[in-house]
């Protein structure tokens, strides 16, 4: 049985943390622009198509999260753990990725990175988008 959030779009950091604590992991389409999520543990969550632009995710545990088609532009991902994350067609323009752990995360050629960012240098794997 698949979980849906169709009737409960997450749009505040407090709601997100509460739903995660309840065992929910589907935050597809969440509207969390400018949210303060510093140091939060959200591993294994689905943030596909979510808006996390300008969010503070400094030191957050985002291992294995799905950020496909998400907007993380200008987000603070400094020291965040993104190992194993899905970054297909993710907008990371002007994001702070300093110290972010990105080993074994997957991206594709439509993923947008900050200028002068080298995905291969941090262990990102460029793949074709799954069908």
From TrEMBL:
Pfam families: Pentapeptide (PF00805). It comes from the Bacteria. InterPro entries: 5peptide_repeat, Pentapeptide-BTB/POZ_domain. Signal peptide: none annotated. This is Pentapeptide repeat-containing protein.
